[in-house]
Write a structure and sequence with these properties.
The protein has 314 residues and is an alpha+beta fold. The protein folds into two domains: 171 residues, Neurotransmitter-gated ion-channel ligand-binding domain (Acetylcholine Binding Protein, Chain: A, Distorted Sandwich), CATH 2.70.170; 120 residues, Neurotransmitter-gated ion-channel transmembrane domain (Methane Monooxygenase Hydroxylase, Chain G, domain 1, Up-down Bundle), CATH 1.20.58.390. The chain is 31% helix and 31% strand. Strands 1, 2, 3, 5, 6, 7, 9 and 10 form an eight-stranded mixed β-sheet that branches. Strands 4, 8, 11, 12 and 13 form a five-stranded antiparallel β-sheet that branches.
């Protein structure tokens, strides 16, 4: 069989002037290695499949051609970023002029997301493509369900990825007003919070609980009481400096930021309470000081419990 291409205008789509050319698009996620929260980017390795029918190529079953030798939908990424093709740009022709183009891409793409629920957050990561220079009257995108998937094992360590899905939407070109099809590959990503639980939340809770020990120290013992309160406060400040390197630097508060700030406030209030009871003892009002300690023994833990529920549960 001869793989001689017929004379054709590669810039003219199949059936020009008639119904739009249908192009099935699918993406197989081969790997994802990183999600950068601050830059709002993810680094991935994926394979994109494009399939369409060109009647001008009938009878060339099994032939392969360079992409520029035939018409193609010229799909481009909507996500800003840098991706690099890994396969030679060649298409395979099947029965009845069906054309299949497969390309592997590696690199980084952007996706907008907020970390308000950090570190218990989850997001939808997407890859979006559009046919450059073609409206809905010329190119109609469909989902290639067969080639919309991911490999079972991915190397990204701190996220759990779900089952991907493909969908097609349309939007209006801001200049021409014509509708344009857009293919979306979407996959859910849920952060694995265990690291932050054991490295940040649990130590922070222990520091806060340590500050409550002043409520069981006799307020007449000024030195140990004030010393314990000051130690708790300084320990918490040192802890926050140590955590600065592992927490995302954002211009807005996350749930974890709110929890750290509120915990700092509770430790400071315990210090204020210790100073207050020490002063009361110095002016011969020891009974009031002891009563304040007894109230704070259950008031502070209840307030802390309400804080945890209010931030992470409600």
């Amino acid at each position: 069989m001869s793989c001689q291409l017929p004379e054709m205008k590669t810039g003219e789509r199949p059936g020009a002037g008639g119904a739009p050319t249908k192009v099935a698009v699918g993406i197989v996620l081969a790997d994802m290695t990183e999600i950068d929260d601050v830059k709002q980017q993810f680094t991935a390795d994926f394979i994109m499949h494009e399939t369409w029918t060109d009647p001008r190529l009938k009878g060339l079953d099994g032939c392969r051609f360079n992409l520029e030798q035939v018409w193609s939908p010229r799909l481009d990424f909507v996500n800003s970023g840098r991706v690099f093709p890994g396969f030679p740009p060649r298409v395979a022709v099947g029965p009845d002029g069906m054309v299949h183009y497969v390309q592997r891409y590696r690199g980084s793409l952007s996706f907008r997301h907020r970390l308000d629920e950090f570190p218990f957050d989850q997001h939808i990561i997407g890859i979006a493509v559009v046919p450059v220079g073609s409206s809905l009257l010329e190119v109609e995108l469909t989902v290639d369900e067969k080639n919309t998937s991911r490999v079972k094992e991915l190397t990204i360590p701190d996220w759990t990825l779900g089952v991907p899905r493909g969908r097609v939407s349309t939007f209006e070109h801001p200049q021409t007003g014509l509708g344009i099809a857009q293919y979306h590959f979407e996959i859910s990503a849920k952060r694995r919070y265990e690291y932050y639980l054991w490295k940040v939340l649990v130590p922070l809770m222990l520091i806060v609980a340590m500050s409550w020990s002043v409520f069981w120290i006799n307020p007449a013992q000024f030195g140990p009481q004030i010393g314990m309160s000051a130690t708790s406060m300084l320990t918490l400040i040192a802890f926050q400096f140590a955590m600065a390197g592992i927490l995302p630097r954002l211009y807005y508060f996350t749930e974890l930021d709110g929890f750290i700030t509120a915990s700092t406030g509770l430790v400071f209030l315990a210090l204020v309470e210790a100073l207050t009871t020490a002063y009361l003892v110095s002016v011969d009002r020891k009974e009031l000081a002891l009563r304040m300690d007894r109230v704070c023994r259950w008031a502070f833990p209840l307030a802390f419990l309400g804080l945890v529920i209010g931030i992470f549960v409600l």
